[in-house]
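INFO batch 0412 | record 1 of 1 | parsing
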Amino acid sequence: MYSEWASLSAQITANSCGAQCFSVLNKFPASAGREVVVSVVKQLGTNLGITQNAEPSHLVKDEEVKWCMDVICFGLSLPLQEHETIKDCVNVYCEWLTALHPQPRISVPKPICEDANLYARQIINHFHNLFVPRQGESADTIKRQAVLCHRVLRTLQQTAQISLVMDRQTWDTLLLFLLAINEILLAPPTVKDDVGDQLCERVLSVLFEVWLLACVRSFPSPSMWKTLQESCAMWRHRVALVDQWNRVNLALTARLLEFCYGPAFPQLKNADEDGQLIPAGMSNDCVAQTWYRFLRMIGNPTALCSPHIISKSSHFVQWALTHEKGAETHQHPCLQQLPQIFLNAMKGISSQVDAFLALPLTSMGAGTELAVARPKCNSILHVFHEWLFEAAHIGGDTWRQNRKKQACEASKRPSSMIMEHRKGSISLSQPNSLNDPQSLPPTLTIDKYESGRAEAIGTLCKIFCAKKTGEEILPVYLARFYMALQQCLKITESRECDETLASILLHSSDLFRLDLDGINVLLPGFIAALEIVLPDKDLKLKTQSMAFNRTELRRSAINILLSIMVLPLHYQSLPIRDLTSETSEKIFTFIQLKSRLMNILMNALQVETDAQNTHMLLGGLLLCVQDAVTFEETELGGGNASTAHLSHNSSGGAVQHHEANLLSSACSERSASLVSAGTASLGGQTTATMGAGSGSIRDTASGHDYPSLTISDDMSFEFGQELEGVLPYDNAHALFVRATYLVCHRLISSWKTDLNVSLAALELLSGLARLHIRETDALECKRAVKWICDYICYQCSRPPPAHSKDLHSTIVAAFQCTAAWLMQHPYLLQDKDCLQTVLEVVELGISGTKSQTKGGDIPKFKDEKELKPASMRVRDAAENLLTIILEQVGYFPSECGPESISSLLDEVALMKHCNSMAPATSSSEQAIAKFKYFVTENSTILALLEEPLGNDQDPQPTVTLLIRGPFGRHAWTMQLRHLPRSKSGIKYHAINPGRPIPMNDISQRPECEQKNFPEGVDKVQPCVADYSIPTIEQMREQYGAGGIRDLEAMLENQSIHEKLAWAEADTSADSLSHAQECVPPAVCHEFHAARLFLSHFGFLGFESRNPHNPAESLGTPPQRPLIVLDTKSTAFAADLDRLDKLSARTHDTVYVFYVKSGQTSAQQIIGNLTEEQHSLSLDPHFATMLQTLGWPVQVAEHSGWTGFAHNSWSLKGTPEEQLRTGPVANDSLNFNGSQKVLYWADVCSEIAFVVPTAWNLRHNSDSSDGGSVSSADQVSGSSNVWARGDGDTGLAKTKSRNLSLELSAAKEPVPPTRRKGNVTKPTLLAQAPAKIFLVWLESYEDYLNFPLEDLLAYTRTGEELHTLQLPRAADCHVIFVHSLLSGLLRVKLQGPAGRMSFATPLVDGMVLSRRVVGNLVRQTALNISRRRRLDNDNYQPPHVRRRLKVQDIVQKYKMDLSEAELLAHLFQRAI
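INFO prediction complete | emitting tokens
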């Protein structure tokens, strides 16, 4: 840099020598000179105003002043015993230097004031005598000398700051003086507590601060800069030099960043005193020049690792020559500080890199935000690459080879060359000692510099991790970086974690997700490093003095793991070459690394104790299993993959083996041997052992049906066999079993007390439940459900002080997880033990206790138990699970499809099929009038229609029910039949069978006397009782004969009338002789079917309720079995419609945006999908991802959640309505909700994916739109629905929970008219549902400027007005997805800070494959919403909200009828 400029070192030496011989008193004896000095200086000192008032100086001529200065110059060189005299000399000179001040002191002689610069230069040179170390002085006198030196330095610095008259020559003299005193104090080897040691930091700080002033007032010449650089090279054994160098560099860097990158760039925070280092008047150009020159001031910091170079100065040579035992120069004790000095230098460089990257100075590198306007990596590397790359190789193989090469070259030099350098270093006469590590003291061996090396490689990692999207890095930098990393990642035999390895892991979190060219060549090295850090609970450290947070180290390692988990299945058989090997012996493929990655993940999860780290590992575990399952289904054809599993028998031994070995390392030894041995064939030994359990699972490469991957031509056949033999042990089935066992085991053992970890584990188990694993694995699924139930039991059984909101949240989540397993594996309920376990847990959740705590206990019946659930939230979750078990398991999705768990029939739809009502005039009020409405259990509304539907030609007592309960609306039709349907149409007799001719002949009957009593009755002796009934005669006597005669007359008349009637009947046409054939009566079409139904189902039993019944102790007042509702009110239909608008499932909305590179405004982002020409330029993978999020549905035909409250949960439109609409625009990405949305649902949740366009803003702001959509927004035709994912198997089932109405025209009912209207939901939400954004980024850095606040206007659902708090940008969750050049996707999560903010499976920084992005994004969105609901104290589950709405309807419309009035009401016909 200054090679063509002359150094001023000779001038510095001349000035130093001249100052000591300037005075004429040196010609006289020392005693004589001392006496002169004492006399003169004492007199001069009295006029300074220190002890008395200052007086004007009597020195008025130049000769007088020069003579006095000659005396003072000699006085400054006196021995330190003459402290007072030296002090007076210093005081006089310091006062005289005020001549350079704007206001000189009164005691300054006139000649000095007239030519201040000339005399100031002489005074400055004379001061050199004060700083010369005196030999053999005591510590006390040295301290006195240091005090005087401080006074001089303070005076000089103050003069330089405030002087306005200093010329360039004076500035140069001052700088050379400061260099000279630094040289004389700092160049010699450090001796503790000498004057150089005490003044070291002070003289350096004054030199640098005055130098910075000179850069503003009189910029130093190149020769001056070169002299400074050479001088600093002689002081590098001083710790203070690097510390002051770092201090000045950071201060200059802070100013440099201000004008290079503007005020928006994050400001570098320095200490307050460091902020004053830079003079205020320094221009931008001056700052840049000064910054770069100061940066290069101490040369290459890696020279600090070579004590031979540092000790080349004459001072060290002199020490070595005078040493008693003849030591080498590099063996001086002060050089033991070199490792620390090297570390400080590397930390200083690292701090400057952090400043350019806008990283906090205390940052560990992981999870910190980088400035968008940061410089490119190439720019930073241009400045620092030489030092950092050399420092990163210190102590490595490359460094050792270079040192040997240098030593070899030095040994071949001619001796004359060696002799020429003897002036510089005596050790150069022995070339071999130059690099001989044995000649170094133990404290200076190369391994002692590892801390500085670690800092250097960590800084390099931070630079390369700062690469922006699309940024190019020079290949030479990448190559040197990869070589340095590979050297630093080498694992020692002791398998210990050293500082270098820790530094790499701490600062390389983003390394594998930045599209760095060729970065995957480092994959084996990083995996080996992860195998040291993650699997072991107690990390083996090389030195216990390593200062870093172990949790942060594991977190960074987990981040790296999450970014490489999908690489084996992504690149499959692609080979990875070794950087250091020119041959192909060590080539192996990505797929071979899969087993090692799985083992790292499993073992890390087993030993991890930090909650956040565990959360990240759980997300990675589900990613691995999901990716493996999807890979085998899509890439390998699914059918063959199902056979590539671990063979196991149905015997109990195999079960025990699984339990013992699922946590094992799955052929880790074998996979490791594959990597280490290269192509070393294992022959036929393809047997792998999954751990050291009771048995072994064997599978040979030739025996399984796993399809072999494509192997490149340059691989050996044996290697292909080894590769194929590894695969079955890490396939989807094996991962599923291991993951299920491990997570369940840790959940029940150590995670149950941590809310976030428990929720993440349960989310992972729910995700595993949804995977399509072979049903032969029923044992693993049963075990998982049993463990989850045990977890619920344990949490419920904890003592009362432990019961909190968090605890109950985990219980609720566990119930939801159980429901997911049972829905996806309905065969589990066929198992008696599993069914009993689940129902016991449901009972525990609802009532608080089990009926049978142990197997042999007598069950406790429901009415005998006291209901004390853990909380109402737990009770609601248990009720929901019970309903799912009874109604949905094995039946979802129903004939209505997954978009609805309720029947799509309502009163209007049913009345259209009745003969008594014209469809054209049907309305909601007219249809409701035909029904009778009852409420049972204060939670279920029964709507009964007694009219038979028009399709039934076989009149029977028929009732059609609409049941509206907490869990939806269901339609049933029932008939009272005396015969089964299969026999009801068969006639067993002819239509007119005829009748036999009547026989009018009266047969002759023998006459016989009728006896009223037995023959022997007269022989019985009468008793008093026989006379209790009076005779006729006795009655005559008692009542008279008149009454008897009247009775006899009546009897006579009656007999006459009867005889006349018989005679008339014999002669009539209806007599038996003229009988007509019997005609059956007309079929009865009028039934009181509602009364029959209610009676048969026990709703008319008016037994009294027990007031002490625990079922009524939860706040529900005693109710009659049946409550009649008054349907005549006009508001009844509206309330009923509002109830139907309350979904029985949770509903969420995800808004999808596409951000092109550099876009920062909402209008630009919305325009990407609004304008057709813009949408054509979108990434094609974006459209693919959309298709994997959900099923495209037509809003006009959709009966589920649409993303908008006004048209959700409405019945499908009629074909006539659809024909009136225009054609559908063929836009595959138009999912803004006007015509189509993406939809997905399971038994508990609905989620809509909306891609907002400009239409959404107009639609949301148009108040006249009301709750309906215009005809132009309706679409016709059937939606082209892709495979329905988890629900496609259920659609094929013939069983349906909703009974078919058996219409004669078609098997399915005719779709009724879709009603429109402004439907408002009751204000029951305490907060709006979570706003979740899915953002596709072309440029990853755009997430920092994403206009979240502006885009909220496009994401309204209509529910915001019914919440207590409007959505805010700070409450939104954003899932950023960035497509890498490799075809993988990088994830960035952003959301509100909180205990339950982020859910799994997606983790911030994770790298996904496109196969699983839709599934994992959907699961994450659902889990985020569930966590938000769990954290909301006022949240009410859907079935609770429906129950409350039913109770509200009951209170408004109930009829207080007595039992008699209720029965009378049943006999009344509907209108």
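INFO post-check: The CA atoms of residues 281 and 292 lie 18 Å apart.
INFO record closed
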